[in-house]
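The protein record filed here:
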Amino acid sequence: MSFKLISAWIVGGIFLLLGTWIIQNLEMTIGVSEFSYVFAMIIALLFFLVAGLCWISVAVATRRF
């Protein structure tokens, strides 16, 4: 595996970690508006999707070797 594939794999893991961290700490409490709550959920979803794209691209690239 090349350095690019390994780095894409690690970046995917970091995005997954960030998305999980956001969702884990997300609470609808006093002082949190509905907009900010939904916005944080959308950001976490985007992090999950980017992590999936990184891992899928690594899987496709390793399949071609």
